[in-house]
Write a structure and sequence with these properties.
- The complex is a heterotrimer of chains A (290), B (203) and C (813).
- Chain B has 203 residues and is an alpha+beta fold.
- Chain B has a 5-stranded mixed beta sheet with strand order 2-1-5-3-4, sandwiched between helices.
- In chain B, a hairpin with a 2-residue loop joins strand 1 and strand 2.
- Chain B is globular, with a radius of gyration of 17 Å.
- A 7-stranded mixed beta sheet of chain C has the order 3-5-1-12-9-10-11, with helices on both faces. Chain C has a 6-stranded mixed beta sheet with strand order 7-15-14-13-8-30, with helices on both faces. In chain C, strands 18, 19, 27, 28 and 29 form a 5-stranded mixed beta sheet that branches.
- The N terminus of chain C is likely disordered.
- The chains are: A alpha+beta (290), B alpha+beta (203), C alpha+beta (813).
- At the B-C interface, helix 1, helix 2, helix 3, helix 4 and helix 5 of B face helix 1, helix 18 and strand 29 of C.
C-alpha cells in the first residue's frame, strides 16, 4: 500500500508557498500534518500530482490570543492546541474537542487548520469551531479572505477554498466569562471517529441561558448547527425537561446517512445522547462546577 | 526521470544524508534505506501504531509521514533505546513483565512508553491504559504491557534518585535519543540471568 | 493407551514463570520477521485484487503495466495456471471447487487475486498494478448463506452444481427418545458472524528459485504440517525434495498463519518466472480481504432437551456455515465442534447437521478456537436458555450437569474422550474470586438509578491436541486416512556440553514456543533455560512437524523433548558406565551429571561425557558412535479410529482443558456501550509450564474474545462488497476496550501427556463470547434481551433494548 508518485514542493516562507500554490492552481495540494491525506494516498484514493508541504513555515506555527480572538496558524499541531494554556483560557471547548481527536501520535502531526480544510463530516474540530463561530482565513497570492466556517465547509470533504488558496489561520472568538462548554462524542472504540458528537457553548445570565451554540458532527455531510436546540435552550435553567427538549430539538429533521458503525436512527440517537450530555456538562461548568 | 530530494536527518544520534523519492514513506526509508528494521509496518493507514517512532521526541506514525518530511529532524527508533549492550529501563521492564508476545508492536509500544513516562513519570494505571491506546497489540490484551510501563516508571524514578540525575525530563525535555544515552549504566546487562518471581495477580 | 503421567513430582523449571528466552531480540527491534529479509537481487511483488464479488474475467490487458520502467514481470491468473497447479486443498471435492493462487476466468470474492506484478520496488509494483486493465463481466453475487442453499441461487462454482460443499447429519445416541422424554425443550436461532485473527504482521514470503540447482527456497512466516509440503511442491511444480520452506518468526497468527501457503506459492511461482528472489508481503487490505483465513460464520437452529430439575438430556442442531468461496480445510472446524459438543456436561445424546455453504466471500481458515469457540458459545447460550426457562440459577444448572472428577476418562456422545478435569473446582475458584452477592446488590441498587450491570457465569471446554482423523472422518470413503499429526525435535549436545534444540515447524508466532522448549530441556538436563539454543530447520530436511494450532504445540513438543532426551541420556549412561567402570543399571541422572547411585563423588557431568563423545571415540567401546544427538518424532499420544458408520468418531481431541469466566459489565442503555467492572477467569490447562506465559495467552485470547463478542466483524454488504477493508472499520480492541483480568489456575494433569500438560493457547477466546453474551442478557434482563447474535455492537444492543421495550410497553421511557 504505497502512494503514487507526486512532485514535492517545500517552501520555507508563506509568500513562497502562496506563489507555488498560485502557480500550481488546481494541481496543488497542501500537505500539513498529513494524517488524513497520507492514508488516502497510501490507499491510492487520493493521487495528487503536486504536494506543497507547509511544515517548514515556522511563521504559521502559532496559537495566540489577540483582541478577543484566538488565532491558530496553519502549522499549529493539534497537540500544541491541547497543551496551550492560552487556548484553554480562550476556547476551552476547542481544547476539549481536540483531546478527543484520534490519539497523541496523530495529534502530534495533525494540524487544526488541516482538519478544517479536510472537512471530514465526522471530525471533531470542524464541529467545535462551528459552535464557536470561528472564521477561516484563506490566503492566496491575490490576498486574503475571511470566511465564516459555516460558509467555508460546503459538503463532505468539500470546502469553498479556491485553487491557490491556503487555510492560513483559524480565528476563534474568545468565549466569554460565565460561559459553559462541553464536547461529548461517542465511538464504539476509543479514539475513533465518532458515530456522532456534540459541541455546546452556553452563555448564562443570572442562571438562564442567554445564548446557546450547539453543533453536531457525524449526522450529516458536514458539521451542522442545531438551531432548534439553540432556540429551545434560550432562557433555560438546566432542568431535566429542558435538557431533554433541547436534545430532541437538536436531532429533529436530521436524517444521517447510515454506515457500518451506525444506521440513521442509531446516529440520531447517539447525537441526541451526546447533545444532552454536553448541555448538562456545559450547564454545570457555567455554574462554576467541573 | 524520478524526482528525488536530498534529506539530512539525525537518526538515533547519527547524521544520515540520502536522496529519496518524495513519496517514500518514512517507515520504508528507515527500514530499507537505513536498515532499521525495528520500525514495523502494520496497517499503512495510521491506525495500528506499529510503525510509531519518535520525531524530535514525539511519537509519530512513520507509515503516514513521508521521509522528506523528516528532513532536518531528529528520529529515534527502537534501535536507539539500548546502548552499550544494555537495555533501556523500558526494555528491561517489558522483558520482566512479559509486555510482549510476538514482538511486532513492541518497538512502537516501547517508544510510546518512553513518551508517556517523559510527560508523566509516575502515571496511574488508568493513565497508562489511555496512553497506550494509540498502539494496537493483538497478542497481549495489554495487561502485562501496562504492568511493564508501570514497572519502567518505578525503576526509572528509582534510578533517577540513585543516580542523582533525571533520566527523562518532563515536558519538552531532551529527545529520547538523549534520554536513552543518559540511561547508560542503569539496568542489568542483557546477558544477565533473569530468574523471575511472578508477581502477577494470580491465585 | 499407555498412561504416562508421573505422580506430582518436584520440578526444577516446569511451572516457573521465567522471563521468555525469545524476548531480547524483539525488545531490540531485531525480530527477523519475513519483511526484514533482503536477498541479493530481490524483487518485490504486488497482487491485483478483484473489485467484484463475482464476475467473469473477459480479458486482461497488461501491456501498459509491463512496459513501465522497473517492472520485471506481470503474471495473470491464466499464466499462473500454466506455471502452477491448483492450491493444496483438503476440501470435500477439490476438483469441483478448484482453488488457484490467482483467479482464472472468474473471480469469486472481492479481493481475490487476479494478477501479480514483479518490480524493482513495491512502489513500482503498485504503480504497474494500477495500469492493468481487466475487463470484467459482473455476475450476480451470492452473499447470504441461507439464500445460497436455495434453488436458483447464483453458483460460486458451476462444477459443484450447488453451493453446498458438504452436508451430513450425525446422530449420536437415541436423540429422539431424549427429546420425547424431555420436560423442557428450548430452541433458538443463533448467529455468529465472521471475524479473524488479524495479526499486526501480515502473511509474507521471500522465495528464491535457483535455476542452477532447481532448488526452491521460500522463507515465510507460515510453516505448519511440514509432512504435507509435498502438496505445495506439486502446486509449484518442483520436486518435493527441491522445496525448502524456511520458517521465519511470525508477528502474530492466532490461527491465521496456519498452513497459510498462498503467499508462499505466489512468491515461489513469481521467483521461478523471473529467476530472481521475490518478496511478497500482504498489505493490510490483502490480509483482510484475501488471507484465506476468515473465521467461522455460522447460523444455528438449535434445540436443547432438559428436565425440570435442570438435567440436560440432548442437543439437536442444524448449522449452516458460510465458508466463503473455497473450503481449503473442509469442515475441520466442525470436527473441533464435535470434539467438545456437549461442553463440560453429561449430555448423553446429540444430533449435528452441518451444511457447509459456499458464497462470494474470502474463504475460511483458522482463527483461535477453529470453530470450537463457536460451539462453546452455542452450548452455553442454550444452557442459559434452559436455566431461564425453568427459573434456575446459571451456577446451579452447571453444577447439576458437570461431568464429575471420578468419571474421567469420559467419552462424550460423539466418541471423543475428555481425559481429565475438575469442572466444579474451576467454577468454585472463580466464584471465590468474585463477590457475587456484592454485585447482585449493586445490580439491584443501580437498576433503580436506571443503570444496568450484568454478571455472566459460564463454564466451557478447551480441547487440545488434535489428531488427523478429524479431517477425514466426514467421509465414508476418505481419500487418505491420515493417522497422526506429529511434532518433532532434535537435541544436539556439542563437544562443550551445550544443547541446541532444532524445531521443525514455524513454532514462533507469538506464543512462547522457545521458552517452552527451553524449560522442558532445562528440566531434563538441569541446565539454565536461557542456555538452550533453539533453532529452526527448513522443511527440506525436516522431521514431521505440525506446528502450533489447536493448542497442541507445548503438549506435543514436550513429548518430543522427553523422547529425544531419553535417547541422549541412554548414550550418556553408556559412556559414563564405561568411564566410571560401573554397570549402566547402577547409574542415575542427578544435577546435570551421571553418577553411580548414591555416590556423588563418582559422577561424570554432561560436558565431560559430551567431550568424550565428540573427541575421544577410540577410547570408548566400539559400538558407541561419535557425537551426541537424538531426534524424536512424537506422534499423537491418543487417537482411535472412527466407527465405519460414523456414529462414533473415535478419540481425536482428547486433552480437555476447562475454564470458567465471570465478567461483570455495565451496559449504557442510551448508547449500547459495554464497559467492564470486573473480569475473573480461571483456567485448567493441566500442568503449567510457565504460568505467566499461559496467563498472557489467556488475557490475549480474552481480548480477542472481547473483539469477537463486541467489535469485530468482516462485513460484506448485500452486494458482496467488503465494507471492513481497513482498520478504521475492522475494530480491533485497544487498551481502552480490554479490562484487567483476574486470573486463576487449576491444575488437573492429563494422565496421557508428558508432565500432564494440556494445551491452553486458545483459552480466552473460547470462553469470552459466551461469558459476555450471558452478562449482556443479565444486565438487560428487565428488557428481556437475549443475545443471540455476535458481535453485540452498540447499535445491536440498542436495537435489542428497543425490541424489548416494544414487547413490554410499560418499559417505554
Amino acid at each position: 500500500m504505497k502512494p503514487a508518485p507526486f512532485a514535492y514542493h517545500v517552501p520555507s516562507a508563506l509568500t513562497e508557498a502562496l506563489a507555488v500554490l498560485d502557480e500550481l492552481g488546481e494541481e496543488g495540494r497542501v500537505l500539513a500534518g498529513g494524517q488524513s491525506l497520507v492514508p488516502l494516498m497510501n490507499f491510492r484514493l487520493a493521487q495528487p500530482t503536486h504536494l506543497v508541504d507547509i511544515n517548514r513555515l515556522d511563521e504559521l506555527d502559532y496559537i495566540r490570543r489577540d483582541d478577543g480572538v484566538l488565532a491558530i496558524g496553519a502549522r499549529a499541531r493539534q497537540s500544541a492546541l491541547e497543551r496551550s494554556q492560552e487556548a484553554r483560557g480562550a476556547a476551552p471547548l476547542l481544547v476539549e474537542a481536540v483531546a478527543q481527536v484520534a490519539h497523541p501520535p496523530v495529534r502530534h502531526r495533525g494540524t487544526v487548520c488541516g482538519s478544517v480544510a479536510h472537512a471530514d463530516p465526522a471530525a471533531e474540530l470542524p464541529a467545535a469551531l462551528l459552535a464557536l463561530d470561528a472564521e477561516v482565513v484563506a490566503s492566496s497570492r491575490q490576498g486574503e479572505r475571511r470566511i465564516p466556517i459555516h460558509e467555508f465547509i460546503s459538503g463532505p470533504f468539500t470546502t469553498t477554498l479556491a485553487p491557490g488558496e491556503l487555510v492560513r489561520e483559524v480565528r476563534v472568538p474568545v468565549s466569554g466569562a460565565g460561559s459553559g462548554y462541553a464536547f461529548a462524542e461517542f465511538s464504539p472504540r476509543h479514539g475513533d471517529f465518532a458515530v456522532s458528537g456534540a459541541a455546546v457553548l452556553l452563555q448564562l445570565e443570572a442562571g438562564r441561558v442567554e445564548r446557546a451554540s450547539v453543533a453536531l458532527c457525524g449526522v450529516a455531510g458536514m458539521p451542522v448547527r442545531a438551531a432548534g436546540a439553540e432556540q429551545s435552550l434560550r432562557g433555560a435553567r438546566g432542568s431535566e425537561e429542558e435538557l431533554e427538549a433541547a436534545a430532541a430539538a437538536a436531532v429533529e429533521g436530521l436524517t444521517p446517512s447510515a454506515d457500518l458503525h451506525g444506521g440513521s436512527a442509531y446516529r440520531r440517537r447517539i447525537a441526541r445522547v451526546c447533545v444532552r450530555r454536553a448541555i448538562n456538562l456545559a450547564f454545570s461548568r457555567a455554574r462554576g462546577g467541573a | 526521470m524520478v524526482d528525488r530530494h536530498r534529506i539530512e536527518l539525525v537518526v538515533n544520534g547519527e547524521t544520515e544524508t540520502q536522496e529519496v523519492e518524495p513519496r517514500r514513506l518514512l517507515v520504508d526509508f528507515l527500514r530499507e534505506d537505513l536498515g532499521l528494521l525495528g520500525a514495523h509496518i502494520g496497517c499503512e493507514h495510521g491506525v495500528c501504531g506499529t510503525c510509531t517512532v519518535l520525531m524530535n521526541g514525539e511519537t509519530i506514525r512513520s507509515c503516514i509521514t513521508f521521509a522528506v518530511q523528516a528532513d532536518g529532524q531528529e528520529i529515534t527508533t527502537v534501535e536507539g533505546l539500548a546502548s552499550n549492550g544494555k537495555f533501556h529501563p523500558v526494555q528491561e521492564a517489558f522483558w520482566e513483565k512479559q509486555g510482549l508476545q510476538c514482538g511486532y508492536c513492541t518497538p512502537a509500544m516501547m517508544l510510546r512508553t518512553v513518551e508517556i513516562l517523559r510527560e508523566n513519570p509516575s502515571p496511574t494505571r488508568d493513565q497508562v491504559r489511555e496512553g497506550i491506546a494509540s498502539q494496537l497489540c493483538r497478542c497481549t490484551g495489554y495487561q502485562y504491557i501496562i504492568d511493564a510501563v508501570l514497572e519502567a516508571a518505578r525503576t526509572m524514578s528509582a534510578g533517577a534518585e540513585t543516580d542523582g540525575k533525571v533520566l527523562v525530563k518532563q515536558g519538552a525535555g531532551p529527545s529520547s535519543a538523549e534520554a536513552a544515552a543518559q540511561t547508560q549504566g542503569s539496568g542489568p546487562a542483557l546477558e544477565e540471568e533473569a530468574e523471575d518471581a511472578s508477581r502477577q495477580k494470580e491465585s | 493407551m499407555a498412561v504416562t503421567q508421573q505422580p506430582k513430582v518436584e520440578r526444577k523449571w516446569i511451572g516457573k514463570s521465567i522471563r521468555r528466552v525469545e524476548d531480547p531480540r524483539f525488545l531490540l527491534g531485531r525480530g527477523a520477521y519475513v519483511d526484514d529479509i533482503t536477498l541479493p537481487g530481490m524483487l518485490h511483488a504486488a497482487i491485483l485484487r478483484s473489485p467484484y464479488p463475482h464476475a467473469t474475467i473477459k480479458s486482461i490487458d497488461v501491456e501498459a503495466a509491463r512496459s513501465l520502467p522497473g517492472v520485471v514481470a506481470v503474471v495473470t491468473g491464466a499464466e499462473a495456471a500454466e506455471l502452477c497447479a491448483p492450491m493444496p486443498d483438503f476440501g470435500p471435492a477439490p476438483d469441483k471447487h478448484v482453488w488457484r493462487c490467482l483467479a482464472v476466468d472468474k473471480v469469486r470474492y472481492v479481493g481475490e487475486g487476479v494478477a501479480a506484478v514483479v518490480a524493482k520496488s513495491r512502489y513500482l509494483a503498485e504503480d504497474a498494478r494500477d495500469l492493468i486493465q481487466v475487463d470484467y463481466d459482473p455476475l450476480p453475487p451470492i452473499v447470504d448463506p441461507e439464500q445460497a442453499l436455495e434453488a436458483g441461487a447464483p453458483l460460486v462454482h458451476d462444477a459443484l452444481g450447488s453451493n453446498v460443499a458438504y452436508e451430513r447429519t450425525f446422530t449420536f445416541g437415541d436423540v429422539d427418545k431424549d427429546f420425547a422424554e424431555a420436560e423442557v425443550v428450548v430452541s433458538d436461532r443463533l448467529r455468529w458472524n465472521r471475524s479473524g485473527g488479524q495479526p499486526l504482521e501480515t502473511v509474507g514470503a521471500v522465495a528464491h528459485y535457483d535455476l542452477g540447482t532447481g532448488m526452491m527456497t521460500i522463507h515465510c512466516n507460515s510453516l505448519t504440517f511440514s509432512h504435507f509440503l509435498f502438496m505445495m511442491a506439486n502446486t509449484l511444480k518442483v520436486p518435493s525434495n527441491k522445496l525448502d520452506v524456511k520458517p521465519v518468526n511470525a508477528g502474530g497468527s492466532f490461527g491465521s498463519k496456519f498452513w497459510a501457503v498462498k503467499v508462499a506459492v505466489l512468491s515461489g511461482m513469481l521467483s521461478k518466472r523471473v529467476g530472481r528472489p521475490v518478496k511478497l508481503v500482504e498489505d493490510r487490505i490483502d490480509n483482510i480481504s484475501n488471507c484465506d483465513h476468515h473465521g467461522s460464520d455460522r447460523v444455528y437452529y438449535v434445540e436443547m432437551a432438559a428436565m425440570k430439575d435442570g438435567t440436560l438430556r440432548s442437543l439437536r442442531l442444524r448449522t449452516i456455515d458460510d465458508y466463503g468461496a473455497y473450503i481449503q480445510f473442509g469442515t475441520g472446524t466442525h470436527g473441533n465442534s464435535l470434539a467438545q459438543l456437549v461442553g463440560p456436561y453429561r449430555i448423553k445424546t446429540a444430533q449435528y447437521q452441518v451444511q457447509a455453504v459456499l458464497t462470494n466471500k474470502c474463504q475460511q481458515g483458522a482463527y483461535r478456537g477453529f470453530g470450537s469457540e463457536v460451539t462453546n458459545w452455542m452450548v452455553e447460550r442454550m444452557v442459559d436458555l434452559v436455566a431461564q426457562e425453568i427459573g434456575m440459577d446459571a451456577v446451579d444448572i452447571r453444577r447439576r450437569n458437570f461431568i464429575q472428577p471420578d468419571q474421567f476418562p469420559y467419552f462424550i456422545p460423539t466418541g471423543n474422550m475428555y481425559d481429565s478435569g475438575n469442572y466444579e473446582a474451576v467454577l468454585d475458584k472463580a466464584l471465590s474470586m468474585i463477590d457475587l452477592e456484592h454485585w447482585r446488590a449493586e445490580q439491584k441498587r443501580l437498576r433503580e438509578e436506571g443503570r444496568y450491570i450484568g454478571i455472566g457465569v459460564i463454564s466451557a471446554q478447551e480441547r487440545s491436541v488434535f489428531s488427523a482423523t478429524e479431517f477425514w472422518f466426514w467421509f465414508d470413503e476418505p481419500a487418505a486416512k491420515v493417522t497422526s499429526s506429529p511434532e518433532s525435535v532434535t537435541l544436539t549436545v556439542d563437544g562443550a556440553g551445550n544443547i541446541t534444540a532444532t524445531l521443525y515447524s514455524c513454532a514462533f508466532w507469538g506464543n512462547s514456543a522457545e521458552t517452552m522448549v527451553a524449560q522442558l530441556v532445562a528440566e531434563e538436563f538441569d541446565v539454565e533455560p536461557q542456555n538452550v539454543n533453539i533453532v529452526y530447520s527448513g522443511s527440506n530436511r525436516s522431521l514431521p512437524a505440525t506446528g502450533p494450532g489447536g493448542s497442541r504445540f507445548t503438549v506435543m513438543v514436550a513429548g518430543a523433548v522427553q523422547g529425544a532426551s531419553t535417547r541422549i541420556k541412554e548414550k550418556m549412561f553408556k559412556v559414563a558406565g564405561h568411564l566410571l567402570e560401573a554397570d549402566v543399571g547402577d547409574l542415575e541422572w542427578t544435577d546435570g551429571a551421571v553418577r553411580v547411585k548414591g555416590v556423588p563423588e563418582r559422577s561424570k557431568p554432561m560436558a565431560e561425557i559430551a567431550a568424550w563423545l565428540h573427541l575421544f571415540k577410540h577410547s570408548l567401546p566400539d559400538d558407541i558412535e561419535s557425537g551426541l544427538e537424538a531426534s524424536k518424532v512424537y506422534d499423537h499420544p491418543y487417537t482411535t479410529m472412527p466407527s465405519d458408520d460414523r456414529t462414533n468418531l473415535g478419540v481425536f481431541y482428547p486433552f480437555m482443558g476447562n475454564a470458567c469466566h465471570i465478567p461483570v459489565i455495565e451496559v449504557d442503555i442510551t448508547t449500547g456501550h459495554v464497559t467492564f467492572l470486573q473480569y475473573v477467569a480461571v483456567h485448567d490447562a493441566g500442568t503449567l509450564v510457565n504460568p505467566r506465559s499461559l496467563g498472557g495467552q489467556i488475557i490475549g485470547g480474552t481480548a480477542q474474545g472481547i473483539g469477537t463478542a463486541l467489535y469485530e466483524r468482516y462485513v460484506y454488504d448485500k452486494d458482496g462488497q467488503l465494507l471492513t477493508s481497513s482498520y478504521m472499520d475492522y475494530l480491533i480492541p485497544s487498551a481502552m476496550e480490554v479490562p484487567d483480568l483476574e486470573i486463576g489456575h487449576e491444575e488437573t494433569p492429563s494422565p496421557f501427556t508428558v508432565h500432564g500438560i494440556k494445551g491452553g493457547g486458545e483459552g480466552g477466546r473460547m470462553m469470552t463470547p459466551a461469558a459476555l453474551s450471558a452478562a449482556i442478557d443479565d444486565a438487560l434482563a428487565p428488557f428481556g434481551v437475549r443475545c443471540n447474535e455476535l458481535p453485540a455492537t452498540p447499535e445491536r444492543i440498542v436495537n435489542w433494548i428497543e425490541e424489548g421495550r416494544s414487547r413490554q410497553p410499560e418499559l417505554t421511557e
